[in-house]
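Let us practice reading a record.
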Amino acid sequence: MNQTPPKGIAILKILRWPLALIASLLISAILLSSFIKQGLGNTPVRNGQWTTAMSIGSTDSSSRLRALVAIAGLLASTREDSMYYTVKEIDGVPLSLNCSYKIKGSEYDANWWSITAYGWDYYLIPNEEKRYSYNNENLIKNEDGSWEIIVSANKEGTNWLPVGASGSDAADKDLSQDFDLLLRLYTPGDAYLNSPDTAPLPQITEEKCV
């Protein structure tokens, strides 16, 4: 004599494979995030606060690094066409959305360069201004060519790079997660190609934290 299983057990049997798939995808995402951070964080060349990898965009790069570049969205081309520098921390402390930072720089030997903020997940950080980066063409500069960018959740300065909700909404958001800054240099000069550890780069200082 056949017995019909209880309704709850029947539903669990139906849902077990979708739930197993969701759990598997979640675990994979966590492991992938850790893999990306380890792979991009251990770059071999340091220049002050910035780090880079000479193998990015090179035919000598490993399959692991190529996968990391593709996932992180660096859009790397050949080494001669582009250089990429990242900043993840200041004096050993990760960049925090709870803090504001000042980036100071001048003109750099490249046809085009930009500074972009990326969240912990390597995606652009949503903000009300829909501003995600500055470049050598849209920065408001001083008469001598120098410039300053303020990176913060709340609006500050002329060249403001938002890294979170602005204004009153910022108090309602979780700003505890860290972020990275990426400097792209397209068609860089010889100083970057031959001496990436000493070539001139912007300087970053922590202004305040909340």
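A brief commentary: Residues 38-209 form a domain with the Jelly Rolls fold (CATH 2.60.120.600).
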